[in-house]
Structure formats: C-alpha cells, structure tokens
Amino acid sequence: ILRFTLLELSFWLNTIKYYKMNKEIISNFQTTLEIYEKKNLVELLEDSPLSPAKFKQIMISELKKSTSLQQAFLKNPSSLFASILHCAELGLNPSQLVGEFFFIPFGNVINPILGYKGLVTLLHRSDKLKKIWCEVVYNEDDFEYELGLEPKLIHVPNEKAIRKSTNIKYVYAVVKFDNGDTQFKVMSLNEIKSIISNMKNQNSLYFNDQKDSQHWMLKKIVLKQLSKVLPKEDLKIQKAISIDDNTEAGNYIIVD
C-alpha cells in the first residue's frame, strides 16, 4: 500500500510540474506573440480576412493543443515565429482544422507546411483563374489523356473502384482560366512516389488512408507542380511554393 501511495504521489507531482511548465510555455509564447502582433501582424494581415487579434488567438490555441509543438518551441523558438510570420504574410489561416497552413515539428525545429487548401486559396487570388480542381484516378477507372498542341483529358470514375492509396494509378490537377481555356497536370503514382522519396522531412499523411482518405497530400503535390508553370501575378505565391519546396528538402526558416 505504501509503495502504491508513493507511486501515486510521484504521478501527481509530475502532473503538477508538467502543467506548471505548460502554463509557463503558453505565457511566454503569448507575451512574445503580442509583440509581433503590434509590430508585424497588423501590416502582414492588412489584406487578410483575419484580424491580428484573431490570428494570435488561433496560434495560442494551436500551441496549447500540441505538446510536440511546445517542445519544439522551447528548443528553437525562432523557427516557430518565422513560420508564424510566413503564414501571416501569405494571409492564410493558421488553424490545423482549416487546413490552409500547418506547423509541423521535425526534431528541434518547426517547419511551415503549405496545405492543399492554402495553395488553392493563394491561386484563387488571381483574377485569371476561374476554377481549380484535383482528382485521383484508380485502377478501375476509365482514363486517358493526351498532350501536345491539342491536349485532352477524359476521366470516367468507376463507382466500384477500391478507393485506397494502394489502388491509385494517377492524380491530376486542372485549372480553368477566365477566358475558358484549361491547363492540366497528370502524374503517375511512380512520379509522385519519386517526389516524396526525395523529401528529407516526409509527412506521415502520404498514402495514409485513415488520416487522409481523400488523398489531399497527393493532390497538393500535383497541384504544386502545375502551379509552377501558371502565370503568377502575386509574388507571394512564388515565395510560398519556394519555401514549401525548401522545407520538404529539409531546410527551415528562422527569424531574428
């Protein structure tokens, strides 16, 4: 009984210590973020639907929910704040539930990861783009495409197809311009795997049928490849894609 009591006491002491440290981390983060709110977020979020105050509250909520993010913040706070400012500069929502932007801890740093929805949001800011969509082609689907002077893409989904990552044949992205023209990018499963294999920091969501049943991560790869050849009026899109590529290559950004 005494041994059980000591173990129980040790558990509660460690729990109290954890919550005390957790509270200090949140407090320190909030204090520093308020400085950025006054000096940087007002300007960066000028054209965003999010106010600096709302953006700050979302970031505090994200940190509270993730112990791994808290630990990475303790070890390398500059990488987190650099990622936060990058998200604000792009005018994207930092909430993981929204899916526009993610703060992913890799070792001792936090990497800014552009989400599929975030890339779509950035591309839709162009007045020339009318519609954007991505689809997955499964082995049982009827699918054909041609390139050249008169490109053609035909996809007839099979309702009986097994919609799992092991049954994927192609993934394609299409944009429709305001003048009615379309442009598309088709990538085979092997091409996608080749890109993923070159990523130093690979995301566990790739080919994860439980956590990413709609294969948004794979769609993002193809849409990003297509977006590299689209006309870009906004330099923020070019910067977002460049930083996302560098992040996947194992680099990270910091702020002084």
Q: In brief, what are we looking at here?
A:
The chain is of the alpha+beta class and 256 residues long.
Rg from alpha-carbon coordinates = 22 Å
The succession of helices and strands, N to C, reads HHHHEEHEEEEEHHH
Mean pLDDT figure: 86
- The rough form would be described as globular
Structural class: alpha+beta
Beta-sheet strand percentage? 15-25%
Biggest sheet statistics: 3 strands, antiparallel
Number of strands: 7
**Contiguous uncertain segments of 5+ residues:** 11-18
Q: In percent, how helical is the residue content? A: 40-55%
- The largest beta-sheet arranges its strands as 3-6-7
What's the N-to-C terminus distance?
54 Å
Specify the number of helices. 8
Identify the notable features of this structure and list them briefly.
256 residues, alpha+beta, three-stranded antiparallel β-sheet, two-stranded antiparallel ribbon, 7 strands, 48% helix, globular
Task: Walk me through the structure.
By secondary structure, the chain is of the alpha+beta class. Helices cover 48% and strands 19% of the residues. It contains eight helices and seven strands, in the order ααααββαβββββααα. A three-stranded antiparallel β-sheet has the order 3-6-7. Strands 1-2 form a two-stranded antiparallel ribbon. α1 packs antiparallel against α2, α1 crosses α4 and α3 packs across α4. The radius of gyration is 22 Å and the shape is globular. About 3% of the residues have low confidence.
Tell me the layout of helices and strands.
Elements: H1 2-44, H2 52-65, H3 67-75, H4 77-90, E1 101-106, E2 109-114, H5 116-123, E3 129-138, E4 142-146, E5 152-156, E6 168-177, E7 182-188, H6 189-197, H7 216-227, H8 235-248
Antiparallel strand pairs: 1-2, 3-6, 4-5, 6-7
Helix pairs in contact: 1-2, 1-4, 3-4, 5-7
